Structure formats: C-alpha cells, structure tokens
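[job 0412] stage=fold_complex status=start
inputs:
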Amino acid sequence: MIDLIGLTIAVPLVASGVNLLIGKRLGRRSGWIATAAMAVSFIVALGALLQMFSLPAEERTQVVTVAEWIRAGAAAVSLDLRVDPLSITMALVVTGVGSLIHLYAIGYMDHDERPGRFFGYMNLFCAFMLALVLANDFLLLYLGWEGVGLCSYLLIGFWSDRPDAARAAKKAFITTRIGDVLLMLGLFVMWVHFGSFDFDVVLGHEGSLPEIAAGTATAISLLLLGGAVGKSAQLPLHVWLPDAMAGPTPVSALIHAATMVTAGVYLVVRAHALFEISDVALAVVAVVGLAGALYGGFSSLGQYDMKRALAYSTMSQLGFMFLAAGLGFYPTAIALLVAHAFYKALLFLTSGNVMHGLHDEVDVRRLGGLRHDMPWTAALFGAGALALSGLPPFSGFFTKDVILDLASRDGATWAFVLGSLGAMVSAWYIARLYFTAFIGERRYEGSAHEASALMRTPLVVLAVGALFAGIGLELTPEGTLPMFLEPVLGHVVEGDAGPSTQVLMVLAVVVTLIGIGIAWRLYRPANQERWVSFPEREPGMAGVLAHGFYIDGLYAWIVANVGLRGAAALAWFDRTVVDGAVNGVGTLATRASGLAPIWQSGKVRRYALSFMAGGVALLLYAAVKI
Amino acid sequence: MIDAPRVELWAILPVLMLFGGGLIALLASGFARRAAQAPFALFTLAALAAAAASALWLWNRETTTALEGMVSIDRLAVVATLALCGIGAFGAYLGFHYFERDDFRRNEFYALLLFALGGMALLVAAADLIVVFLAVEVLSLALYVMTALTFRRGPTEAAMKYFLLGAFASAFLLYGVAMSYGASATTSVQGLARALTGVGGSQPLALVGALLLVVGLGFKVSLVPFHMWTPDVYQGAPSPVTAFMSAATKVAVFVAMVRVLDVAFGSLAWDLAPAIAVLSAGSMILGSVLAIAQRDVKRMLAYSSVAQAGFILSSFVSPEREGIAAALFYLISYSAAVVGAFGVVMLISGGIREQTGFERFRGLGRRQPVLAALLSVFLLSLAGIPPTAGFVAKVLVFGAATSAGYWPLVLIGALASVAGAFFYLRVIALMAMQEPRGVDIADPSPLPRLVLAVPAVTVVVLGIVPGVIVPLLQEAGVLTW
Amino acid sequence: MRTPVAYFLLLSAILFSLGTASVLLRRNALRIFMGVELQLNAVNLTLVAFSRMHMELDGQILAFFSMVVAAAEVVVGLAIIVAVFRRTSTTDVDRASVLRG
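[job 0412] stage=fold_complex status=done
writing structure:
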C-alpha cells in the first residue's frame, strides 16, 4: 500500500472535482461521496501503516515517485511523496479525523442549499493537507500550504451572505499570507543555499546533518517559524483564528482545530534538523509557544461565545505543541497533536450540536442546563473536556503534562512553572465551558433538540479516541507512538534535573484540579447571577480577557494613529496587513491610484518622455560600461 | 558579378500562408464590405491551419537558415509559430463573435489579423536585423489599425497613442540596427555573433546598438519605462484585439529578443544582463503596484501584462537554454491565460460599448457562474498560483534567473507576485463574494464559453503536467548556428 | 579628400535628437509624426555612412527598406490621425486623454 499512497491525495481530489462540478445535481448525495472518498483515503493510509510495520525501523522511510513532473535535462523534477512514520501519522490524523468530521457534516449541513460546494471544498482541503504532510520536498509542502490556506478562506466565507463571515475569511487569508510570505522567503534562502528543496538535501540524509552554517540556519528557521506562526495562529499573527469561527462548525473542527492549524507544528518538527543547527531558533520556538499557550488560555477565559473560547483554546494547545518542539521533544509534540486532533474536533463538533439544536446560539450566558435536553451532547462534550483538562488517565495527561514533566526534568524550570500555569488555565476554561453551558438551569427559550444518530456516531468514535488515545497509543515518551516516530524524530531522553517524575505527575494533577476547582467556585449554578448578566463590554480584568487582551484593538489603534503619521513603509505594512483584514487593499489601491494619474496622465508626450528617460538611462549605462 | 540569390520560399511557407491569406481576405473584404462575416472567419481559420501545418512540416529540417541567412528554420521558430497560430485562431473567433453580436461588419479585421500574424511569424524566424525591423513594422502597422477598428472615441485615441509612440520606438529600433551594423559590417544575427566574438567588431558600438534594440523591442512587450502606452491601448482597443495583441505580440517579440540577445549579442551577455535585470525588476514592481490601483479590469490586466513582461524578461539574464525553455513556457502559459481573460471580459462587457469597470464583475459568480469560473482560472494562472501553468512558469523563469546568480531579481519577482496575488484575487473575491448590482449585460451564448474553456483547460493541464511540453520546449531552446 | 565618417554620424545624431525633441515638445499629432520621420531619416544617414565606412552595400539597402516602411507608416498614421480629428475636431495630443490612470 505504500506505493499507492498517492491515492490518499488523488481520491479526495477527484471527489472534490465531482462535487464542485456536478454537486448541484447530486444534492445530498455529495456528502456521502465526500465521506466515502475520505474513508478510502484513510484505508490506503492505514494499509501503508500496516505495511510499514512489517519493515525494520530503518527502512520505514520511503519515497514514492508519483509522476515525473518536469524533466529538465538530467535533473528531473518529479512529484515525490515521502512515506515515513511522521508523515503517515499525520496522514492518518487527517484522513481519520477528517472522515469522521465529513460524516458528521452530512448531518450538520443537512439544511444547507449548496452541499456540493461545501463538500467539494472540504475534500479539496483534505487533498491539499495530505499533499502538505506527505510532501518529500519543500516545494510540494508549500503548494499544499497555500492550498489549505485557500480552502480555509473559501470555507470560512462559505456563508458569504453573512458579512462577518466574508470579513473573517478575508482577515484569515490576509493575516496568514504574512506568514506565507515569510515562509516563502525562508524557502527562497533555502534554495539559494542548498539549490534544492528536497528534504534529504535540506534536512540531511540518514542521520547526517545538513551542510549549513548556524547563521543561515537561523535565518531559514526563523522564516519558517514565521510561516508556522501565521498558519498555527500564534502571537502575533493569531488574530484571524477566533474570527474564523464564523465558518460552518465542521470547518472549525477540521481545519481550525485538528489539521490545518497544526501544519505549523508539523513544519517545525519536520525541519527540526535545521532548527537544531541554529543556536537560537529552537529557543524562539519555545518562547513563542509558551506565550501562545498562556495568551490563548487566558483569553479563552473571557469568551462567552463557545466557539471563540474553543478557538483560543486551540491557540493555547498549539502553543504547548510549539513549546514541546522548541524544547526538543518532537515525538511528544506530535503526540499532543494527535490527542488534540481527537478532543478538539470532538469539542467543536459537540458545540456544533448545540448550535444545530438551538438555532446557532453559542453564547454560554444564554445556554445552561443543556444536559437535560441534550444528554448525549453533554456527555460527549464532557469527555472532550476531560481529555483536554489533563486528568489521568485521559489523553491530555499523557501529552500536555508529559511536556511539562520533560521540561522540568530537563532543567527548564521556567517552562515548567509557566506551563503549569497554562495547564491550570486550560482546566479552568474548559471546565468553565462545561459548567456554564451544560449544567445548572436552562437560560434559553424553547427546547433544544438532540443531534441525530448520524451526527452522534462519529462523535462517539472521537470521544473514545479522545479519552483513550493516551493509553491506547501510549503517548508517553517510551510509548508506542513516540517509539514509532523515533526513526524520524529521534528519541526523547528524559533528564534528571529537578523533582522526580512521580512528584511532578502528582503536581500536575493537583494543578489541574485547582483549575477545575476555580471554575466550579466561579461558575457553579449557584453563582450564575454573578456572570450571566455581564455586559458585552465590561471593565477590568474580565473585559481584558474577553477581548483577547485587546490585541485586535491595539492593531486597529496602531493603524489609526501610528500608521497614518508614521513612515510610508510602516503605513503600507500596517494598512495592508492589519487593517487590510477589512479594507487595507482598497485603501492601498486608493493611495496608489492617487499617484498613478500623475504619471499615467493619458498624455502622449508624457509617455514619450518616460520612454526617452529609459532610453537615455540605458545609453548612460552603455557609456559607463564602455 | 553578383550571384542571384537562392530563393528558398519553402523556408517561409508559414509566413507566406499567412500573408497570402491576408491578401485574399483583404481583396474579398474590399469587394464585399457588407457581406456576412462567417466565411471570412472560416477562411482565416483555414489559413491559420495551413500555416500551422507548414510550420510543423519544418520541424525536422536539417538546414538552419535560408534565404541568404535572412530567416532561420529552427524549432524555436516552429514552436513560436504554432503558438501564434493558436492565439490567432482565438483572436479570430473572438473578433467574429464580437462584431457579429453588434452586427458591426468589419471584414478587414481578418485581413489585418492575418497580416499581423504574418509579421509575427516572420519575426520569430528572423535571423537578420533587417528582417527583425521589417517584421516588427508589419505587425505594428496591422495592430495600429486593428486598435482603431470600431472607430469609437476610445479606440481611435488608443490607436493614435499607440501609433505615435510605436513609430517613435521604431526609430530607436532602427537606430539600434544601424549601430549594430556599424559595429560589425553585417546585420545578420550569425554575422554579428561571429564579428563580436572575433576581432573585427566594435564592442562599444555594439553595446549601444544592443541597448537601442532593447529599447525598441522593449516597447513592444511593454517593459517599464517603455510601457506607458500599454494601459491606454489595452483598455481602448476592442477586447478581441486586446486579447490577440497582448498575447501574440509578446510571443513574437520575446522570441526575437532570444535571437537578438542570446545569439547576436551573446558575447555581450555579461554587459547586457544588469540592464536587463533592472528593466525586468522595474516592470515586475511597477506593473504589480500600479495594477492594484485600477478599477477597470481591462486596465488592470494591462498593468498585469507589464508585470508579466518583467517576469519573462527575468529569464533572459540566464544565457543557458533553460532560460529559453523557461521563457517559452512562460509565454505559452501567459498567452493562454491572457487570451482567455480578455475573452471573458469581452463577453461580460456587453458589446462594443465595453463596460469593463469593476462594478460589472460584482457578484458575477451568481449570475454567470461559468464565466466567473473561467475568469478565475485565468486570473489564478496569471497570479502564479498552483496548480495552474502560471505557477510552473514562474518556477521555471525564477529557476533560470537563480542559476545565473541573479537571485535578488528572483526575490523582487517573488515579492511582486505576492503583491500581484492581491489584485487578481480581489477580482475573484468581487465575483464570488459580493452581491450583483445593475442589469446583467453579459453575453448569453454558449459557444464562446466552450471555446474559452480550451485555454482554461490548457492552463490547468500545463499546471499539473507541464512535463508534456517542457521537453519539447527544451529542444526548441537549442539554437543551432 | 573624403569627409570622415564621424562627421556624418554626428550630424545624424543631431538630427535624431532634433526629431526626438519635436516628439517630446510638440502638441500637434502631425508635428510629432514629422519628428518621427526626421528620426528615421537621421538613421538612414547613419546607415549610409556606415555603409561607406565598411565599403559594402547592406546599409544602403536597409536605408531603402526603412524609406518604404516610413511611407507605409505615413499611410496608416495619417489615417488614424484623421479618424481622431473627425471624432474630436482636434489634433492636439494633450486633449486626447480619455484613457488615463
């Protein structure tokens, strides 16, 4: 099956084409086609995994040439896919979780008028995402990277009749493009230095290190990190993620929780050889990750919109992944990525159930007591929350807390202390969501209807994964998954600094319990008067949190004040980049168009003058050369 | 005693087919000014097919030049002629539809189209600077008239500007020919190459000549700062004419530049490359930046074609054959995309009144999903977004420029294409995300949509499997002398 | 005694510059076009001068070609200028600026 790995990309691609072209005639069948395509894709990936198990560990990295793309003399540019433990793990996450979300979406998008379009985009997204993770060179990776960005844009803005959706789509597209430009620059430096995009050349082959000086490696790594920060919604390019929740919920689950946003983590982990040669790049990754983990966690506390709260939570969890990667625990970063894909998809989809059952209501102040009307949903959300919170023996415990444990044993006490704070906040915000939305008394009108069996089935599978991935896949450093990843990512060696692991584990559980305790103290049904009546714009700490520390506002302020008065370059940057989320391109256009007619006046003589100036310049050049 | 020159007319058979067809069409249109256009269009297509077939027939010739070294018979010329015939066929069909719809009989359009193509086919085979000059003039004169063809205010104004500036540029081109002649006592491309590598030639004079030729030819392909006519003419000319000339002129003139710069002045490559790099960078930057400001799709595409000229030129800093193949691939993918884009614009703009402002494109996805989808494919290719041919083309030309060590140029190009993505995608967003306004004046007929699907399929296929033509282009890039 | 070739070249360069100047400075389309004609003829002088310098005929032949081209340009150019004049009743090129920006 390894040789057939191209099918994992081809099948969703073809299904996407079918759905986009004749989706109108297919009607509701298009959802089943899309889901079947994902299932086939998953089975192929699974087959490749099984075949891989039959191979000795050192032969598990295989390059499959799908097609020869351009033959340029002796050097052929071919479309190569790389099948190794890391890529197959990612492919399984994308296809596995992707299949379940597709199945769920059949029910969720039941009432939509354009299911063909929706599933076409979804499948297209999966094809690009698989190209991204299965690429054997940075060029194909970049192609997939741009492709998923495009699909994300199309899907966030899927309900284009809602203005906030169109705005959010633009914002996401433009914000992530900043990252993409940095990534492109990184690839460019890479090309200049190595003359190749091939992983084997750039990242070193079979344990050999890439041939590159530390300075260049730093430059490339930081530029790649720039791309990763944009895609994975880390500081300071995170502003698009909460707004992106305007898209349909299966999109939030698939793209903005389980797969696309983890592409940044994948990139860093994949290119870790480069990051390691640089002396500072990994430290930057760790700091960015930790900052994102704390920022996202605290911001989530202030959200009343369930999906926005989950979006900030995603940012926080991705921060933990970056922290792990930055500290060198690559297998653990991937383990958290896998576990997170399960429980975050589950959490998003259950909140989708709530929206589906209650006319798109997501404000927890107007929810409450849902477990009476929606027992399944409440139980499933609870399962996801347990997994995220980090209580043993669920998957969060085996990943997030392991990262902190490893950090402490490695002597990175700062990461442990601050990370534990982040872990406590994680337990706090997720418990808060559960307490506010699902228990207590009903604060909504009418009755909520439970999701259909079709929608519940994939959720049950996800819940099993979320709860038991930690034990089943043994996500601990010596466990099955990390050992499987070892040929690519190396072995995590536990240090011997600081307190012993047992102490740290107990500490982690205590921290989690404290977080849940705080949430209970603040949000238990008896206290609901204290927060249900909170206005939209409240003063003090709660307001700061609700607005994500006002980073959005800060950007707007910078644009409004500094941008207009500051240097032209800065203004251009700010306007295009930040305010551009809404109208920067238009503003820039107006500005440039103010200049254009001065030169392009429509007058022949002016044109001839420009022509003449060019001719004279060239002749002067000739005079200098002679 | 002067030997009578050997007349090897078979060597310019494609050119003769086109000029012959043009003459017949011209006579016929003189006698039948108000006759139905369909026979003219069919005749034009037949002439193009004959020209393409005779070009193919030249593919495996052993000889390299004919007619006393005036024209070359190589695969570069064959590939370019085939591309030109293809573009010409789309131009003829689009023109037919354009004039037919408003019942506006301009049968001399077909004669002019064939004359322009004849000049272009001659230009891509030209192996002598005299022929280069003549061919440029022939194609230009035909294009000036085609620009004015509907005699409305915009087209005539555009034609006048194009003509005055074009004649101005021709003077520089001719001056360049004269300087080259002065430097080497010959105007043939081979002779120049020999003289400049030996001791006979005058290098300084040749450099001046080469740069003046770059000025003259750079005008035709709209390089900054010789580009100022482009937006006015592309906007003013009837859309089918714009579609035809934006693609075909670039193909013909860039192929001529390959011969002039890579062969005739090959020994000056090191001196010329910096100047070329500056022109290329200027075109990429200014074309992309000014395109952002436009509110008219035709004008925006015109600025975009300025930027595209810069991208193509960036491959000229590499004297290797990868550079030539890259330029050819870029030209083909650009031609398909730009012919298609102007074709769609023609259908949307509603007849010869040509309303091409952005508001016409608002919400087009709802009203005209097929046209919107086609235009999106073309714009994506022009923006260089995978999986379209434009992406592969950019990779190839940037690869060529990088291998020549001009990576700052590639960096500028990469940034310019990012800026470019904004204005192309803005149009797509306008079509997909906004509500339509006003009345729908788009052409409802199905056949043009089907015809325009051909370039759309081409850019997608070439984007996914460029391997089908790249080896061919690399063979065409081997210039035998 | 033969006049040195450099003199001819200098004269033709001056003529070419005068032609260029009239393109840049004149507002009347016809006068601009006359400037272009002057440029072309200046180049013809260059060609003939070089032809004599190299003692061969190619340059003179080329000069003939360029005269034919110039004549063809007159035909097309005047037709276009007349068409513009009919529409706008002026040959002032600065007035012809509907297309701009």
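[job 0412] summary: Residues 535-539, 558-586 of chain A have pLDDT under 50 and may be disordered.
[job 0412] exit 0
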